[in-house]
Amino acid sequence: MNVVLTIILTVQMLAALAMIGLILVQHGKGADMGAAFGSGGSGSLFGASGSANFLSRTTAVLATVFFVCTLALAYFGNLRPASTGSVLEGAAAVVPSAEVPVAPALPASGAGQIPLK
């Protein structure tokens, strides 16, 4: 089960990083208006018309992968083991029943140091 969770978490992290990169590469709708006034930034990496379709579709696919991985991690995170014992009972079974030495209590500062008559 841990291998499946590790694979899902890895796919989710890779999808998130790729999605961040794709979103940063895309230009906004206002970028074309600046090019119309002569800024000269109208050329892009993937061309003028094909960039929106390719980048937006890839971003949508990565977002879908990210959300599916998130739902899978949430589902597997809420699965509980069959035993209904408490966490403290499980911890008591791990700790040996040997007696643990306890340090003597120190007197409190202030009133504990006043001598009694």
SSE blueprint and pairings:
Elements: H1 2-25, H2 31-36, H3 50-78, H4 87-94
Helix pairs in contact: 1-3
Structure in words:
This protein is mainly alpha-helical. The chain has a domain at 1-28 and 49-80. Helices cover 57% and strands 0% of the residues. It contains four helices and no strands. It has helices at 2-25, 31-36, 50-78, 87-94. Helix 1 packs antiparallel against helix 3 (50-78). The longest helix is centred in the middle third of the chain and has 29 residues, at 50-78. 3% of the residues are buried. The model has no long low-confidence stretch (mean pLDDT 76).
What descriptors fit this protein?
117 residues; 4 helices
Q: Which structural class matches the secondary elements?
A: mainly alpha
- Secondary-structure element sequence? HHHH
User: What's the gyration radius in Å?
Assistant: 30 Å
End-to-end distance: 68 Å
Largest β-sheet summary: none
Overall shape? elongated
